[in-house]
Design goal:
mainly alpha, 81% helix
Length: 316
């Protein structure tokens, strides 16, 4: 691959993770709006944005053909419906977490996600994980257990974010669709429910519409939810095609790290020693997970094990 193509891939992936990392800032602007209302608008305007993109790229006809193909095959139809449900759940919990002052917990979810992916691959794809991957998962489990034991509450928002995004990724791996067409179909499936919800929501006497000329700023923010959803996904698709999977694996930790910093330093969310201890277990686990397949890590661990075996006393 030409060097320029690789550079394009790196910059595209970095910008994708930067946008995902600072998304809490965007959803925080919509804090007065309920999470359900924001989610419904996000689905509708994501669909509108994707249709405009596909029309601009003259891919509407091919997208329609792919839609027909998917829904004439039961396995792929069920899979894409499940994928749309899981990503919708993920979006809702993330928006709710941000606007409930749980940005730190949201970041925890996306730190755990790569390790959840390993477990899902083991269960559903029958992949075997290595000893070091097992240690990584164990350290993450200890981190979550530390928070649960000391606070008496399971960080369920983080776990739902990690598991829902993991299941979404697993399904997307099993059903091959393009990033743009996949997001279009997923939002298309959920759009009728989103529109029905908004119609019902705005008819309730206790709910005033956040959308319209009276709330111009909020209206533009709700409409912009489509762009902030689709743009990082498209950038990620550009990056994933041009750079190695291992580099993508390292870059993916940018987003939760930015979220964590935003939660602690910008929104002054509590970050106690207990939370720091839990995060350290998870960070160490992620470091081992991310480096365990590299040549340097393998050489280092082999030297350590060899030196330990030499120091063991011989049986008399």
């Amino acid at each position: 691959m030409p060097k320029s193509e690789h550079q394009i891939g790196v910059f595209a992936a970095i910008f994708a993770y930067l946008i995902w990392g600072i998304l809490p800032l965007y959803w925080k602007l919509l804090e007065p709006v309920s999470a359900g209302e924001v989610l419904a608008h996000r689905i509708v305007w994501s669909l509108v944005f994707m249709i405009l993109i596909l029309a601009f790229k003259k891919q509407l006809r091919s997208s329609w053909k792919e839609f027909i193909y998917i829904f004439t095959h039961i396995r792929s139809a069920v899979a894409i419906i499940l994928a749309s449900c899981f990503i919708t759940l993920n979006w809702f919990v993330f928006i709710w977490a941000v606007n409930s002052d749980r940005v730190v917990e949201a970041s925890l979810g996306y730190y755990i996600n790569p390790l959840i992916n390993v477990l899902l691959a083991m269960v559903f794809l029958k992949e075997r994980f290595t000893r070091w991957q097992g240690i990584s998962i164990g350290l993450a489990f200890i981190g979550v257990a530390v928070m649960t034991i000391f606070y008496g509450v399971i960080p369920w928002a983080a776990l739902i974010l990690a598991v829902s995004f993991g299941l979404y990724g697993l399904i997307k791996k099993m059903v091959k669709t393009g990033a743009m067409i996949g997001l279009t179909i997923e939002t298309l499936l959920m759009a009728p429910f989103a529109l029905l919800f908004l119609t019902w929501f705005y008819k309730q006497p206790e709910n005033s519409s956040s959308f319209g000329s009276v709330h111009a700023e909020t209206t533009w923010l709700l409409m912009g939810a489509g762009a902030v959803t689709a743009i990082p996904l498209l950038l990620f698709a550009i990056g994933a095609k041009r750079i190695s999977f291992s580099l993508i694996g390292f870059l993916q930790y940018m987003a939760p790290t930015i979220m964590l910093l935003i939660g602690v330093f910008l929104y002054n969310e509590p970050f106690s020693r207990i939370q720091l201890t839990a995060f350290i277990f998870i960070w160490v686990g992620l470091f081992i997970f991310s480096t365990s397949k590299t040549t340097v890590f393998k050489k280092l661990t082999s030297k350590i094990f060899k030196s330990n075996s030499k120091q063991e006393p011989k049986a008399s």
